[in-house]
Amino acid sequence: MKWLVLSAVCLWPVVARAAQEEAEVVRLWPEGSIEIPDNAGPEKTTVAPKGNGTLIKLTNVTNPTLTVFKPTAVNTGAAVIICPGGGYGILAYDLEGTEVAEWLNSLGVTGIVLKYRVPRRRDAAFQDAQRAVSLVRSRAAKWGIAPKRIGVLGFSAGGHLAARASTNYKERAYKPVDAADQTSCRPDFTVLIYPAYLANAEATGLDEAGLPVTAETPQAFIAIAARDKFTTGALYYMLALKKAKVPAELHVFGVGGHGCGLRRTDAGLTTWPDHCARWLRAIKILPPPAAPSP
Predict the structure, then answer these.
(1) pLDDT for residue 294
(2) Could you tell me the strand order of the sheet in which 24-27 lies?
(3) Can you list the residues of the chain whose pLDDT is less than 50?
(4) What confidence score (pLDDT) does residue 283 get?
């Protein structure tokens, strides 16, 4: 086991360099425009085995970035900002970040991984999410993106962050810092995969104060396992969308856990990418599949 951890750690710089060559890394904020806590340590990366792969964890993030993965074959013009999970303590950067960007690229979608501020900085992370949507939209022409087809996708705590960005876009949580903040920070669609923290403290309904769903909330796709402790929150979010007459699709799978990303197993939850791709076509974010040859 120790050998596996050591091997993963040794391989990580090589993987990171390869990813760096294929993707553009963009600083989210102008230098000096956000505060760094006095007790913040250096950003930390740890790598450990997970199943047949690894889990790359980032923490002590004080310099948020966007890593832009562009599709190499067909570019549909759609883009998705990916919010990895990790309980607002760490970011599951490969499992729920870079691997998801590669999957989106296979659909012709630009995948953009948001490295938001952690640990225990929910409001700062929310500022990062709002800023990310505006920054991507402001650079849509440069990156070959349709400015009205920019979505957010989040896992676990990242799902909460994506839902928060999707329901709190009328006012910014920070003072505008440059021209990018003149563009809208409203996502055009939302994908929530085993989202956390959506219920109120009593678990009797949606956290309506933190997640004010209205008729203008972006349409959503939600996937979670029935035995996940956060399932009720996902149900409440779906019910709020239904009440507001916002188109949405919810999948509650009988078999599955929490934290699978898109790594396929026998569990039904891990089929969520297939359903999500179909949904993206149904709402016309992606074009319909090509007709089979006669």
Answers:
(1) 64
(2) 24-27, 65-69, 110-115, 79-83, 150-155, 189-193, 219-225, 248-253
(3) 1-20
(4) 98
- Asked if 151 contacts 78 with a C-beta cutoff of 8 angstroms, the reply is yes
The whole-angstrom separation of Cα 45 and Cα 287 is: 38
Give the whole-angstrom CA distance, residue 256 versus residue 253.
7
- 255: tokens are 């078999």
Task: Give Cα separations from 107 to 24, 43, 263, 284, 288 (angstroms).
Answer: 19, 32, 17, 13, 11
Q: How many angstroms separate the CA atoms of 252 and 254, rounded? A: 7
Residue with tokens 């890394």: 25
Nearest to 187 by CA among 159, 238, 147: 147
C-alpha dist (Å) from residue 233 to 46, 201, 243: 30, 11, 15
Task: Quote the pLDDT of residue 52.
Answer: 81
Q: Which of 223, 221, 207 is nearest to 258 (CA)?
A: 223
Check residue 38 and give its pLDDT: 81
Q: What's residue 225's pLDDT?
A: 98
Domains of the chain: 2-282 (3.40.50.1820)
Q: With contact defined as beta carbons under 8 Å apart, do 256 and 275 qualify?
A: no
First to last CA, the chain: 52
Q: Is 105 left (phi over 0), alpha (psi -120 to 50) or beta?
A: alpha
pLDDT of residue 21: 52
Q: What is the pLDDT of residue 51?
A: 81
Coarse DSSP helix, strand, coil percentages of the chain, rounded to the nearest 5 percent: 35, 20, 45
Q: Would you state the pLDDT for residue 15?
A: 39
Report the candidate in 83, 54, 267 with the shortest Cα–Cα distance to residue 192.
Answer: 83
